[in-house]
Amino acid sequence: METENNTVVTEFILVGLTQSQSIQLLVFVLVLIFYLIILPGNFLIILTIRSDPGLTAPLYFFLGNLAFLDASYSFIVAPRMLADFFSEKKVISYRGCITQLFFLHFLGAGEGFLLVVMAFDRYIAICRPLYYSTIMNPRACHVLLLAPWIGGFVHSIIQVAIILRLPFCGPNLLDNFLCDVPQVIKLACTDTFVVELLMVFNSGLLTLLCLLGLLVSYAVILCRVRGSSSEGKSKAMSTCTTHIIIIFLMFGPGIFIYSRPFRALPADKVVSFCHTVIFPLLNPVIYTLRNQEIKASVRKLFYQHLA
């Protein structure tokens, strides 16, 4: 990290989401509402799935882990963002920046891979129902759950290893409200064309391939259920529609951010805000609102403890 004049960047100054005080106040209230209402809802989903003996199917096992990943992901950016609203100078240390970047991609990629696992689970349940209990046994579920964590770690550690080799000697003004790959790389004191290309392949291409693979898999599932009974068809359609909504919420912003040259666009901060703060808290809630079994279990849990 040292240069010829021995200047070393030890901290980055975050520009923030906006310079408008009124918009900052609106965003602060919005994020606070999400944290006070929706975040506890994610933990309620986890508690409901773990406490209800009727929710032991692999779908709910993976959904509980998705809620945990989303809740963990929301702690990476939003708490610091809330604190920075009261600071005139938003400063993050170099190590803090790298740490935030690591967990952002570790948990983000882990969630993306988990959605792939959930798509596989739905494919087996709908297209191979006679073999479902054999294939998706408890041991297989735990092995499949391990894959997103390993995949997310490998993906993120590659990002961090590449960035740690870059020299940072100034400027240190980061045009965002968080530390992310596109903005951090642009501050390096060297030609970053090759590095940007590697990052696009590591993040952008991977995200795009996952999205296309998931859409194809759900298209196959929907084609297979067309001849099913009306009840089974309705339930499969509802589940697949929910999954597809989450897929677009998860992968759409990721493709916009990482699948193009790292040039600043007016929409970058808004997309990053939705991708890192809003959508992670909404994902499990969308699942819950469209799942009758979980809604019934939540009501039962409330009656047991409040009646």
TrEMBL record:
GO CC terms in record: plasma membrane
The entry's keywords: Cell membrane, G-protein coupled receptor, Membrane, Olfaction, Receptor, Sensory transduction, Transducer, Transmembrane, Transmembrane helix
Cellular location(s): Cell membrane; Membrane
SUPFAM superfamilies the record matches: Family A G protein-coupled receptor-like (SSF81321)
Chief place where the protein resides: membrane
Segments forming domain G-protein coupled receptors family 1 profile: 41-287
InterPro entries: GPCR_Rhodpsn, GPCR_Rhodpsn_7TM, Olfact_rcpt, Olfactory_Receptors
Transmembrane segments: 23-47, 59-78, 98-120, 141-164, 205-225, 237-258, 270-289
UniProt GO molecular function: G protein-coupled receptor activity; olfactory receptor activity
Its membrane topology: Multi-pass membrane protein
Annotated PROSITE patterns: G_PROTEIN_RECEP_F1_1, G_PROTEIN_RECEP_F1_2
Family: Belongs to the G-protein coupled receptor 1 family.
Protein task: Putative odorant or sperm cell receptor.
Protein name: Olfactory receptor
Species annotation: Vicugna pacos
